[in-house]
Design brief:
heterodimer; A: 112 residues; mainly alpha; 3 helical TM bundles of succinate and fumarate reductases; 4 helices; 82% helix; 0% strand; B: alpha+beta; Ubiquitin-like (UB roll); Fumarate Reductase Iron-sulfur Protein, Chain B, domain 2; five-stranded mixed sheet; two-stranded antiparallel ribbon; 10 helices; 7 strands; 14% strand
Chain lengths: 112, 234
């Protein structure tokens, strides 16, 4: 007797939730990396070498997408809840995903 | 000859199970027609609710292939999957038996949300003229046609996660009253819908809007309540 979990705006909410969880998991790794700078330039540079590898660059593409889609999806909800209602929320949600993908692609083309 | 429909129907209480039936397929058949055929021809003990059969009373809603539907206006052809219908009682409400649920929590929450009219005048006062083109009246009109079927309540993830949450229907009704210029209960209503289990619990998944058979938009009403609650003076 599970409820309905198929429509587009529910999937947009799921994407927002998953991207938020993944970004929360990434943040400690990010801070650990930044923390290496306190130990000195060599420690940080040693770790930054990893960012030149293809798998990490692909992961960065994914991170930029997650960040962009979480930001855009969050802004959609904030506008929905705090301003006069606008119809076409499915279009806004789809646009948020599309714009986020373009942003991630632009980033990917720049670093790869 | 058209193949019969394969229909699985929930039997018993919360710990029940599905029972299979074969029902003759007919043109322009609604899901309620199917349930009624089972009760009249296969098993007279099947419990289900209906009254008007024309989408006005809101009593025949149930889960159809996992989605909440008003069964009197849901044609089999539009909801059937792989030649099968799986029918269950409405989600998020206690099962009484078979396809009937206890609507008490649903209507108790209408009371908790102050979703009832608080008169501001007596019978001796003039009947006020309500202009149809004001923003408040348009907001009330857009949300007022709810038939209390419980489809939005069954579709809502927040209700499923938080049994204390008032739910889309009660909050939608509260919003129509906030916009009713004859009503004098806005202050206590906003307090009621802003507390524990109130409108700020809504995650705006918009399943209520996606499934409302009357094409209402409770998410819009709840967003309105959120704004009104924030704007209200303490």
């Amino acid at each position: 007797m599970a409820g309905p979990r198929t429509h587009l705006l529910w999937r947009a909410a799921l994407l927002h939730r998953i991207s938020g969880v993944l970004l929360a998991i990434f943040l400690p790794v990010h801070f650990l990396m930044l923390g290496l700078a306190i130990r000195g330039a060599d420690a940080l540079d040693g770790a930054l070498v990893w960012t030149d590898t293809v798998p990490v660059k692909v992961a960065e593409f994914g991170l930029v997408f997650l960040l962009a889609v979480h930001l855009a999806g969050g802004l959609r909800i904030l506008v929905l809840e705090n301003f006069q209602w606008r119809d076409g929320q499915k279009t806004f949600a789809a646009a948020a995903v599309g714009v986020s993908f373009i942003v991630a692609m632009l980033f990917g083309l720049r670093v790869l | 000859m058209t193949k019969p429909l394969k229909v699985s129907i929930w039997r018993g209480g919360a710990d029940g199970d599905y029972q299979s039936f074969e029902v003759p397929a007919k043109a322009n058949q609604t899901v309620l027609d199917v349930v009624t055929w089972v009760q009249r021809h296969a098993d007279a003990t099947l419990a289900y609710r209906f009254a008007c059969r024309v989408g006005m009373c809101g009593s025949c809603a149930m889960m159809v292939n996992g989605e909440p539907r008003w069964t009197c206006r849901s044609h089999v052809s539009s909801v059937i999957r792989d030649g099968q219908l799986k029918l269950a009682p409405l989600a998020n409400l206690p099962v009484i038996r078979d396809l009937t649920v206890d609507m008490t929590p649903f209507f108790d929450k209408w009371q908790r949300a102050e979703a009832r009219f608080h008169p501001s005048m007596t019978r001796r006062d003039e009947v006020p003229a309500i202009k149809p083109d004001t923003a408040a009246r348009k907001a009330a009109d857009a949300a007022v046609e709810c038939i209390n079927c419980g489809v939005c309540y069954a579709a809502c993830d927040t209700v499923r996660w938080n049994s204390n949450y008032l739910g889309p229907a009660a909050l939608n009704r509260a919003w129509t009253l906030v916009n009713d210029e004859r009503d004098a209960g806005t202050r206590q209503r906003l307090a009621a819908v802003s507390g524990t289990g109130g409108c700020y619990n809504c995650h705006s998944h918009q399943s209520c809007q996606a499934y409302c058979p009357k094409a209402l938009n409770p998410t819009r009403s709840i967003a309105g309540l959120k704004r009104a609650g924030l704007a209200a003076k303490p």
